[in-house]
Amino acid sequence: MTQLRRGMLPYCVLALLRDGERYGVEIVRSLGTVEGMVTSEGTVYPMLGRLRRQGLVETYWQESPSGPPRRYYRITADGRRAVDTFAAEWRRVAGAVEHFLSL
Length: 103
Description:
Residues 13-83 form the Transcription regulator PadR N-terminal domain. This is PadR family transcriptional regulator. By secondary structure, the chain is an alpha+beta fold. The chain has a single domain, classed as Orthogonal Bundle (Arc Repressor Mutant, subunit A), CATH 1.10.10.10. It has four helices and three strands, in the order H-E-H-H-E-E-H. The protein has a three-stranded antiparallel β-sheet. Helix 1 (2-18) packs across helix 4 and helix 2 packs across helix 3 (41-53). It starts with a helix and ends with a helix. The model has no long low-confidence stretch (mean pLDDT 95).
């Protein structure tokens, strides 16, 4: 189950970013509102770095009204395509798994 969650997490982050740009802690908090997706900054920040290197997200710095500047993340066109492809495949696989679980 850990491997399954680890594989889905980047796509969940990309899906969050489809709704608008966010900074790291905001992403962690948003994931934490859904049972089973609670994760730490130590997991999310390295993943965001990988997504950036893969060209799926881009970043920029913005001054914060309370503290140091924040790095904001936004999804790229390649990131949108990746999450759309994942979503279609997820629906197909989830339907197949549901079929066998309901036997």
